[in-house]
Give the backbone structure.
Amino acid sequence: MTLEIYRLNNKVAEIENNKVVSFNEAAPILIKQGRFEDWVGIRKPDLNRPNVRSLRRMMGLSTSKLDDVFSEINYQSLSDCFWVKEKGVSETWESIQFQEKDGRFYQHALAGKMLFDDPSGYSNRKSPEHTNIGSFEKGWKNVGLNAWQLWKAGDKSAVWSEVFYSNLANKIFPSIAAKYWECDGYSVCDNFIDRCSGDSLEPIFSLIDEHNDPLALLAVLPKKLHEDYRRMLFLDALMFNWDRHEFNFGITTDIDGNLKGLTPLFDFNLSLFNGASPGVKRFEDTTIQMYKAVKGEKYTVTQDMIESAYTNTKTNFEAVASLDEVMDFIMQSYGLIYGE
């Protein structure tokens, strides 16, 4: 079988028997490296999530083999504008788009709310949940034409920490992070990838297999991204984001495959007080060590920034830590980072 990979309506690669036989510069980075199976693999959801398994059962799909629906959804993902079709089949970018008007897939993936629904309601299986990766229960909510929000489940510490991280990150470095807010006990953010213009998120895994050596990553990362990368490591050290890995940050490329920049930072629910208790005394852990390995200029963090971010972290539940506890945690981290 011969498959063709498209970016919007532009053919960018051809695959025969799972092998890359041709590509152009607009193709995904992994495809340009000849890694078709790796590229497919990073588009698969985590079967350790119970709601993923139950949703697939409702749809009559396997709970052990995830390839059975990819041809139906054209290998789509909401994080990029790539898609796949069999050679000779007449399809377009406009004809294969996800549509989820009643929200049943989203509700089930997020909270298992449709567990006992009529299985016939899942006959149309074009859902972004088939490529919604990660270990936390989550769901893509359709909020308009080509507009989606990612809703993510977690306990109060996870949700509050994610929203606060987003607020403080953008106080320190304006517009560096995706904007998160809390709704109905979930953390929510808009899809920040403009798929309709041809933009795509390429995970750092496409450049380096493991994100554990910042110097090795700097060696392969374009120089114009070095400062943004240092800022990300600084924020992770400051707010103890201990779950940064090669799939939850990346670069954005345009329709021609040109580098636009580091993606807005995202995925902060395993940080702050979802990894440490209020009042805990930090030490020079891995997040601090990684930043120190590549640090350059000294960044400024003020108490006013922290107070403003705290005030803007509005949730339907009580904050998981007081302002004084948050202030102490952040400033203690700042001292460790710069040896003060």
User: Anything to note?
Assistant: The mean pLDDT is 93. Residues 202-338 form a domain with the Phosphatidylinositol 3-kinase Catalytic Subunit; Chain A, Domain 5 fold (CATH 1.10.1070.20). The first strand starts at residue 2 and ends at 7.
